[in-house]
Amino acid sequence: MKNSPAFRVLMMVAALVAYAAVSVWAAQPPRAVKAGAKPQLMAKIKPQIPDANRYQKNKVFLENADELSANENQSTDYQVLKGNVRFRRGGMFMFCDSAYFYDKTSSLDAFGHVRMTQGDTLEVNADVLHYYGEQQVAELRHNVRLENRSTTLVTDSLDYDLNSNTGYYFNHGVIVDNRNNTELSSQYGRYELDTKQAEFSTNVHLVSDNYEMYTDLLQYNLRTHIATIVDETYIESDSNTIVTTSGWYNTSADDATLYQRALITAKDGKTLEGDTVYYNRKRNFGEARGRVVITDPENKVILDGDYGYHDDNTHYSYVTRRARAREFSQKDTIFLHADTLLTLVDADSVRVLRAFNGVRFYRSDVQGICDSLQLSEADTIINMYRDAVVWSDERQVSGPEINLHLNDSIADWATLPSTGFMAEHVGEDYYDQLSGKKMKAFFEDKQLRRLDVDGNVMVILYPQEDDSTYNKQISAEGSYLRVLLKDKQEVERVSMWPDVSGQVTPLYLLKKSQLHLPQFHWYDALRPKSPDEIFLDK
């Protein structure tokens, strides 16, 4: 009887029941599932059915453990597992050295070499895991490392929501985008494994090969490698610094579109600022729209307008749409407006400012208008082309081309190489006038001191009498003329040669047709009389 098969089976069952009744666990588990533990009679521990459906919704199966025990004096809701513990939830496996397993709620507390895997797409390692089956939330603590394809997340505390497949960390974490060689760290973070979208907050730091980004709130997609900027952000590199509050940065292509007023400052001090800024780091090219400001402190030029761009490789800047330049290399600033303004470095490495269409400029001692203009840094010459007019005090000079030379902020000479006309208002309807093929004027202390005219010279003068009145007109024609002036623009000497003809006419005998030379036009209505009046709508 004792050796019969039936007797042996009966003895094995009795031994199992006895083992279950006396096995105890020395300590209470560190935490229980949120449903709590209800006192009840100790249930027999039953092995998991090997052929059960492992893909039951939210169900966790115990796959393996070297030791299994329970203590009905402490709780009847959990089992104690030791050694090579392995659980399964659908396609996800959970491994550890030891665990408390709450079979009724599919929850567990796992300790030592904790690992969660799902195919070849996800692996999470930690020292401790608390998994709540009803909420489907895994709390991983200490030395947490999550690897999702080419993404690695390292933190000390991670909550992983299996419903949304999203991980949250709250005690500093680092995400590495291995495909793009980009590292992001912050105090708090959220990572959506399905969409690859991550959000970082508080002390956010993005590190790339070419730059570093600092902010307190940043969104980043690890599939597109695009960082979405939603807070004040600083982007620093060896070449420049970007300050912005809104926009996106493609960390793979190294370009950005920035909104709500962005500022780019190069290491040499040049800046590009605008309501919307596009920047490509690989090309060193920035483009801006809306209240655009481009500054070049080294060459003392500021450009602004509604649209502009700057190419740092070619040192080329461009603005248009209500464009303005402020050139402050001299003691007095030149304010200049045109449809289009640009600065560049020419073949001789000389910085040049150019203006096209509707040029108007103002400086306290000289103002002008023309179709196009160039200001060269090398010789400080303002070259004015097509319908050029320059004013200084009561004097007006006009011609197809005017070249004005500045010396230490003061005009010291000017030329009109192809036809020139000069007029000065002396009172009422009377204007001193002079025309010729070529003119050159010399200035001293902002006053005209000498004037040379070459070819087809025509003159009308109204000399002032001793009593400061005007009673006659002098008109003359010749081939050459030189005028020397004293302080307060008093004429010291007038020389004309050869074959000079002319006449002196009392004012009361003058006809209206004799008041002006054929070229006379007085353009004072077009003259900018303040920095704001370089714009015609002022």
What is the topological layout?
Blueprint: H1 5-22, E1 61-64, E2 67-69, E3 79-89, E4 92-102, E5 107-118, E6 122-132, E7 137-148, E8 151-161, E9 166-169, E10 173-177, E11 182-186, E12 188-192, E13 197-207, E14 211-221, E15 226-229, E16 233-237, E17 240-244, E18 246-250, E19 255-259, E20 262-266, E21 271-274, E22 276-280, E23 285-296, E24 301-311, E25 316-327, E26 334-345, E27 351-363, E28 366-376, E29 381-392, E30 395-407, E31 410-416, E32 420-427, E33 430-436, E34 438-444, E35 447-461, E36 472-485, E37 491-497, E38 501-506
Antiparallel strand pairs: 1-3, 2-3, 3-4, 4-5, 5-6, 6-7, 7-8, 8-9, 8-10, 9-12, 10-11, 11-13, 12-13, 13-14, 14-15, 14-16, 15-18, 16-17, 17-20, 18-19, 19-22, 20-21, 21-23, 22-23, 23-24, 24-25, 25-26, 26-27, 27-28, 28-29, 29-30, 30-31, 30-32, 31-34, 32-33, 33-35, 34-35, 35-36, 36-37, 36-38
How far apart the termini lie comes to 120 Å
Radius of gyration: 44 Å
Low-confidence stretches: 1-45
Query: Under CATH, the topology of the domain at 54-148 is which?
Result: lipopolysaccharide transport protein A fold
Number of helices: 1
Helix content: under 10%
CATH-defined architecture of the domain at 54-148: Sandwich
Instruction: Give the class from helix and strand content and strand pairing.
Output: mainly beta
Structural shape: rod-shaped
Report on the biggest sheet. Answer: 38 strands, antiparallel
* Annotated CATH homologous superfamily of the domain at 54-148: Lipopolysaccharide (LPS) transport protein A like domain
Strand percent estimate: over 45%
The CATH class name of the domain at 54-148 reads: Mainly Beta
User: What do the pLDDT scores average to?
Assistant: 85
DSSP strand count: 38
